[in-house]
Amino acid sequence: MKICFATNNKKKIEEVKAALGDSFTIVSLEEIGCREELPETGDTLDHNAFQKARYVKDNYGVDCFADDTGLEVDALNGAPGVYSGRYAGEPRSDERNIDLLLKNLNGASDRSAKFRTVIALLLNGEEHSFEGIANGEILKERTGTGGFGYDPVFKPVGFDKTFAELSMDEKNEISHRGKAVKSLVQFLK
Ligand code: IMP
Questions:
Q1: Where along the chain is Mg(2+) bound (predicted)?
Q2: 155: domain CATH number?
Q3: Percent of the chain at pLDDT above 90?
């Protein structure tokens, strides 16, 4: 069965393909001829994930799933949340996003935070969603060079390393996205 993962992020596609095996053919946006940016105008992860998936289904007629992720910091009432990618404005910059996060957390005693991923699936006329959460805390300075986004300042619970110091496999095992993908794969299989 063919199913589109509404992303052009090659790493995300590889990860899902590896987890699913041969039972599903996963195709990217590029492979279905979708080159425009997908609409993402909601103020929740759920809204944006379903909005992207519905756009693909409505315009390209293929079953699909889409993901949306945010970093939710307790002392900032859940910010940057759904705005994580553009926290410090456009053009998007991981460096400036981290600088702003550290500035806004300056002096905060509670630095607990979580990454949350929502995957929205449209399959055979039905809608399903899957969630993955990684709990942790925001460090006061960057450590490690791997990963992307807020990884250098996010230390997951139970580890004394940041996401940026873990190997890709180690991170996938415990990460928000890894957990959401695992639930999706269990459902599809
Ligand atoms: P997206 O929904 O996967 O595009 O993620 C939105 C934003 O959240 C990204 O631009 C990053 O800033 C941040 N983000 C998502 N996943 C991760 C992660 O695994 N580590 C660090 N930052 C992430």
A1: 68
A2: 3.90.950.10
A3: 87
